[in-house]
Amino acid sequence: MIPVAEFKQFTEQQPAFKVLKPWWDVLAEYLTVAMLMIGVFGCTLQVTQDKIICLPSHELRENLSEAPCQQLLPRGVSEQMGGLREVSGLKNNLDLQQYSFINQLCYETALHWYAKYFPYLVVIHTLIFMVCTSFWFKFPGTSSKIEHFISILGKCFDSPWTTRALSEVSGENHKGPTTGRATATAEASAGPGKAGEGEKEKVVVEPEKVVTEPPAVTLLDKKEGEQAKALFEKVKKFRVHVEEGDILYTMYIRQTVLKVCKFFAILVYNLVYVEKISFLVACRVETSEVTGYASFCCNHTKAHLFSKLAFCYISFVCVYGLTCLYTLYWLFHRPLKEYSFRSVREETGMGDIPDVKNDFAFMLHLIDQYDSLYSKRFAVFLSEVSESRLKQLNLNHEWTPEKLRQKLQRNARGRLELALCMLPGLPDTVFELGEVEALRLEAICDITFPPGLSQLVNLQELSLLHSPARLPFSLQVFLRDRLKVLRVKCEELREVPLWVFGLRGLEELHLEGLFPPELARAKLAALRELELLACGLERIPHAIFSLGALQELDLKDNHLRSIEEILSFQHCRKLLTLRLWHNQIAYVPEHVRKLRGLEQLYLSHNKLETLPSQLGMCSGLRLLDISHNGLRSLPPELGLLQNLQHLALSYNALEALPEELFFCRKLRTLLLGYNHLSQLSPQVGALRALSRLELKGNRLEALPEELGNCVGLKKVGLLVEDTLYEGLPAEVREKLEEE
Questions:
Q1: Among residues 115, 154, 322, 396, which is most buried (max CB within 10 A)?
Q2: What is residue 486's three-state secondary structure?
Q3: Any transmembrane segments, and where (predicted)?
Q4: Does residue 423 lie within any of the structural domains?
Q5: How many Å separate Cα 674 from the centre of its chain?
């Protein structure tokens, strides 16, 4: 006997694969099991019982042309027994062997092939059906995708994040109408003429509720959050991989078409040959020399049972064929290579869930036939909004308020600063630190400040370094008068948030990036310090000249070639420091004389070869840095800068210094290194306040002994070659080495 378990390998699948088996595949599977049992039952009978029993025909040899079993059909058995006459055959004492021989010979020659092989045909056809149904679960090109999909699907379905995301959305949907009614009531109560106040109240109050109402994050622990994060990455990679082709869809169609063709072939030939299964079989074989008979009447012992099994088998095949035809209809009556999550988007409120295509779409259509809840829960991991919420939750787990407080430290301005760098987002726990005065965010992408920002009541300084940020209007109102210092560093002007230019209380604005000269005209009346570093500026933006309170301007690392606009700086009456260093400025215009209130002027690292004599009229200058240029001479009018304390002339091509330069009696620092000076005037002794003098890298042969008159100059402040220093008189060196 053949156990059905022997055929298990043909249909064995992983239990999880059942989610990809719609009802027609399940029905077909049960039908194949029934057909297989019919075949196995028939095969078992065929093997364990006699196949055919034959008796010699008692007709004379001259009547052999007639059917040997003809007369047995219309009469009863008793009548036939009475009409039989005794016939003698060959006596050889081998009757049993003779009958066995005749039975076998007649079975092979007289019995129709359909009657002989019916159970085996049933088994073979059923196995083919089984292979066709489960082939795409076994084929390497499709089974790997299916296994991967089932694995991810199960994890997404069971993930605690799925439950939390859907419950949050459900809660928002339930709260939506209530919030709307409350807002409408507030606006109505404001009365005519107070609509603006009502809107402002709605904007301010409503975000605060958002901060306090969400459920506690303890519903999802850190481990579960990390697992959900990994699932998002797996879903992204799987989607890219599966949406590239349609091998699963094509394979399913092919195996379905093959089953339909097989169904028609089996149905046709079974209906034609089923009548060949008969109870009585006439057999004529030339065995008279051995048995004494050439005509036999045989009984197919299982004919009656086989005919009933055949009709049952054909019935099952018909039902099986109808399921295959319905499968074809389902495959072609609508596009299965496209799948829309529209209903899921409407139900969950996650409007960013994308539609999918190709094999990804086909598998989701099959999933819907099993249980549409799977695709709904799976869609959570296709939503970028859901992913951002999860990242935010993981951030909050990782950066607790206690951990953030450990990073607090005083910055250069004495403010209590929190610096965060290269995080995937901004933790909500930051806004629980009400003591923070300065917030520095670097390399943090896509920041959207939540309403919780309003809890940082002490915030005065904000730095956004390669960290684009969005700010709701209600928070713009909050920061408008509070924020004093803002630093923004980005690549392009469009990355600078527009809300920056609406901060009325801003005193310092530092912008760094490649910006065009047409900067936004901002009403920053209180701005005192402005930095536009590496902004790609070729001219000084005119908008700067309207900043009446501006005190410091830094235009470092731009492409400035001309500074003719410097005349307009006279409108910036409070301007004290002007940094035009690290540009390509070739000359300084004469109207620099208008900047009489300027105290610090940085022109280093440019392409200056001369200086205008009018520079000496900037009587307020205390610091002048013209190092790293191509100056060959200095105008004598520099001696008019009586308030000058720091003069940097290093790395130029100066061959001599004007004697008038030493009229600047308040000079404390004089940097003359790496020029072409061949001598230093003895007038240097008049600079009694001098404390630092750099002379390295020149062509000096000796130092004037008048250096001893510079009472503030010590050896540590004198930067010169050792040979020149040793050439000074001993008493001068003693003065320089005095403590």
A1: 115
A2: strand
A3: 27-47, 117-137, 310-332
A4: no
A5: 55
